[in-house]
Amino acid sequence: MSDNIIPLENSTKSEQYTSLIQQLKSLIADESDLIANMANTAAAIKQVFDFLWVGFYIVKQNQLVLGPFQGSVACTRIALGRGVCGTAWQQGNTLIVPDVDLFKGHIACSSLSRSEIVVPVFHEDNVVAVLDIDSNHIATFDEVDALFLEQIVQLIRFV
Ligand code: SME
């Protein structure tokens, strides 16, 4: 196993995601532990794109509870329907927020966050976690990020 994720230079976002997915497949293929795989997935995304914050919230006792992440300390529990994360969980859809100040109920864990994407993680048709990514720039995320991040969360097995 490679001990490092190699970002592609001078390439499109799609090419970077495609390369990242190939590397993630080999990184987590032989590991069944959920937390280990979430931790390396968050680290790999952060390493390639240098987003402000990358991490998982895991559904536990009908709340989202902070899981493995890369970035500054964050709020630990989010209720269903609250903030971007709780809304993505409730709706079962990826949410792209180009400007967090315009999202009613946005939970500001960091004042540096300007835009955000939240991708639900499914197991047997239920949302069991969300992948949350924050950027310190406006409108960082688009449908390309959604498409590839939805593929990335499918690599994580809940057993
Ligand atoms: N902004 C998120 C809260 C989590 S932090 O960004 C890490 C939200 O509104 O749900």
| Percent of residues in helices | 25-40%
Sheet with most strands: 6 strands, antiparallel
| Radius of gyration based on Cα positions | 15 Å
Q: How much of the polypeptide forms β-strand, as a percent range?
A: 25-35%
The counted number of beta strands is 6
Secondary-structure-derived class: alpha+beta
State the strand order across the main sheet. 3-2-1-6-5-4
Low-confidence stretches: none
Number of separate helices: 4
Instruction: Categorize the overall geometry.
Output: globular
Arithmetic mean of pLDDT: 95
Structural write-up:
This protein is an alpha+beta fold. It contains 4 helices and 6 strands. Strands 3-2-1-6-5-4 form a 6-stranded antiparallel sheet, sandwiched between helices. Helix 1 packs antiparallel against helix 2 and helix 1 (13-28) packs parallel to helix 4 (143-154). The radius of gyration is 15 Å and the shape is globular. The structure holds methionine sulfoxide (SME). Residues 53, 74-75, 78, 83-86, 106-107, 109, 113, 116, 132, 134 line the site of methionine sulfoxide. Methionine sulfoxide is lined by residues 53, 74-75, 78, 83-86, 106-107, 109, 113, 116, 132, 134.
